Amino acid sequence: MEKRKVENKIYNATDCCVFRKTKELYGGLSNMASGFPLVVNNIQIPSSEALYQACRFPHLPDVQKKIIGERSPMTAKMVGKPHRNNSRVDWPDTRIKIMRWCLRVKLAQNFVQFGKLLESTFDRSIVEDSTKDDFWGAIRSKQDKNILTGTNALGRLLMELRQFYNEKRYSYENFVVEPLNIPDFNLYGYPILYIDERENFVSYIKNEIKYYEIEVAKTIPIKEETSFDPDIKKMKVKPKISLEIPSSKDEINDIKKGKSKVSKTKKDESQTKLSF
Questions:
Q1: pTM, whole model, 2 decimals?
Q2: Residue boundaries of the structural domains of the chain
Q3: For residue 70, is it left (φ>0), alpha (ψ between -120 and 50) or beta?
């Protein structure tokens, strides 16, 4: 999917999921979006943009550290800009593979949040709205702002990822990302390792279930004698019933005749208070 190999496409914005600003509806699809942290080789990485830019300089670990050290995705991109002449020699031939890998990592490590976002696009075309870059995105026509033209490489990779997500929804493959089989696929001077998020995802599910159980428990009164009277719109306590144990034949006969000694306890003085 290189610029010199892939033709431009024409998109109508009214039929597409278009993203430009990160705070917009589909902004999380952008590599510039915060809130999708990554971990590679036990290194915390703030965004997929920082990871992608760092992969451009495997032979310059100090530059990689500066890129990843930036909290802002845009600043991370700018840090690498002065070093672009020292990009890995095969960058034009590997950048698509690397971007695809970065997106896979983003999904594996942010499966619920990013997966829901991909799912929300249904089967519509995903397009990055750009002012200058018609390779990664598409540019709006000056004559008709609803028409975008470009290779839209990022959008097409996201559509590819969406298909993978839908087909592998219940498969471990969504949580496992192998390192790319390309030379010098390194981070901070060490080979990038296999990523397996299965255990982390299971822990996430367990925590969600535990949280749900706690929330449900909060809605269930502990004392069975309490009830809610919709007419007076306040909690009241049902009177407790106590039965005295018969101690003689006469008392037993009285019970049979419907004359059992049943006494009602007094109502709690504070009828609207409940203890949990």
A1: 0.77
A2: 9-214, 226-264
A3: beta
